[in-house]
Amino acid sequence: MNPRMMFATARRVLEQLRHDHRSVALILVVPALLLAAVYYLFENETLPPGFPRTFDRVGLMMLAIFPFVVMFLVTSITMLRERTTGTLERLLTTPIHKADLLFGYAIAFSLMAALQSLVATAVAYWIFNLDIKGGPGYVVMIAVINAVLGVALGLLCSAFARTEFQAVQFMPVVVVPQILLCGLFVAREHMNGFLESISNVLPLTYSVDALQQIAGNTDATQAMWQDAVTMAGIVVAVLVLASFTLRRRTS
Amino acid sequence: MSHSSSGNSTSVNSTSGRAKPTGPAAVKATGVHVTRGRKKILRGIDFAIEPGRITGLLGPSGSGKTTLMRAVVGVQRLRAGAIEVLGRPAGTPSLRHVVGYVTQAPSVYPDLSVEANVRYFGAMHDAKASDAAEAIAAVGLEKLARQKTASLSGGEFSRVSLACALVSHPQLLVLDEPTVGLDPVLRAELWDRFAAMAATGTTLIVSSHVMEEASHCSSLLLLRDGLLLAQLSPTELSERGRSHDLEKAFLHIIQESESANRNASESQVAS
C-alpha cells in the first residue's frame, strides 16, 4: 500500500466525476427529489394515533438504499471504462498496488456518498421532519457503509461485463433482489423460510436492520453495531474478491 | 539459397560489424511461445536487444508484434520460454518502476485534462510537477495542457498517452505503433525525440507496420506469423532484400524465407 498512489487515484476519480455534471446531479440531487416523492405519496395517509408515519419508516430506508444503488451504478460503469479503454492494463504496468487502486476508488466514492447522505438526511430531517428516535449521525454512517458496499460490488461486477450495457444489466440481478428482500416491503419475519434465508446473506438486509435499530432507540444499540460490523466485513470480502479480477498478466 | 534461412537470426547478429556486444542485453528473449486458445501467436522467438538503442519491431498486422511487446512488458502469459528485461525476468515488480509501455490505442482518461492525466501516471513513479510539465513539453502539448483530453485531435490524444509514459523517465520504453495517425512533421519530431532519448541511454522498442520508419532504428526485428524472420540493421535489410525501398526489401526476405520453408518441407517429405 502506498498512500500517495491511493490518494492520487481518489483525486483522479473525483476529478473525472467533477467534469461530469449529470453524474454529480444524480448523486446529490436525485435522492432528495425521490425522498420528496415518497413524502408526498404518503402525505394524506390516515393513521391511528401513536402509529408512526409510513415516511418515517420508508423514507429512512431510502436514505440507506440510494447510496447503495447510485454508487453501484456509477462505480461499475467507471471501472468498466477503465477496463475497456486500456487504462487499467496500463496502470497495472506501473508500480501501483491493486489495493491502492481499489481503496482509491472506495475513498473517492465514499466521500461522494457522505455528501449525498448529508444532503438527503438534511432534507429528510429539516424539510420533511423525519421522526426517529436515534441521531442522524448514525443514519449517515450506515448510509456511507452502504455506499462503500455499492462501490465494492460495482468494482467486482464490472469484471463480468464487456460493455456498459452489460454492466447496467447487473442492476436487476444484484441490486433489485436486495431491495425486495431487505425488509422494506415485507418484514423479514413474515417471509417464508426460503426467502428469509436468502435475505440473511444479502448485505442490504443488515443495513435495514441497523436503521430499524436507530429508528427505535435513542442510543446506539449493540445490534446496530453488530450490523455495521457485519456489513464492513462483507465490504472487505467483496473488495478482496474484486482485487482477484485485476490481473497484471493475462493470456 | 535453401540453407540460408534457418540460421538467419543468429548469423546476422554475429556477422554484423555494428553489433558489438556492449555489456548485458537490455532485453533477452529465449524460446518465447505464446498461444491464445488454440491459436499460436508466437512460435519460438529468440533475440537480444542492446541498451541505449532504438529497436524497430516490424511486421504485417497480425504477425504478433503487440503480443511480443506485451511479453516484454510482462503482462503477457507465456506458454514457454523466458524474457529477461534489464537483467530481471519480465514482469518482476521492481521492473514496473523502470519500464514504460504505450499501448497502440491511447490509454488515457478522456475526461481529464492533459495535465491531470500526466500527473496521475507520474504519481505512480513519484514524479514531480516539473516532470509532468517536461513530459508535456516533450510531446509539444504545452499550449493544450489544461484542455480536456477528449477535446483533442486523434494525434494529440495519442501524444498524451506518450507523455504519460515519458513522465517516469523509463530505462526501457516500449511503444506500440506510436506514429500511427500523425502527420509527417510530427512523426519526424517524435523520431528525433526517440533518438535523443536513446542517446541518453534509454532503450526503446518501437513497433510499426510502416517499413519506411525502419530507417530510424539501429536494429530491426522482422516478425511474420509469430516467427522472427531476422534481426538486422536497416542497411543489412536493404542489402539482403536487394532494394533501397525497405518495404520491397522486407517483401523479398519474406519470399525468400517462404521458398526456403517450402524446400525444407519438400525435402522432409522426400526423406
UniProtKB/TrEMBL annotation, chain B:
Origin superkingdom: Bacteria
Tagged with keyword Ribosomal protein: no
Span of domain ABC transporter: 27-250
Keywords: ATP-binding, Nucleotide-binding
Extent of Low complexity compositional bias: 1-17
GO molecular function: ATP binding; ATP hydrolysis activity
InterPro entries linked to this entry: AAA+_ATPase, ABC_transporter-like_ATP-bd, ABC_transporter-like_CS, P-loop_NTPase
Annotated region described as Disordered, given as residue ranges: 1-28
Gene3D superfamilies: P-loop containing nucleotide triphosphate hydrolases
Name by which UniProt lists this protein: ABC transporter ATP-binding protein
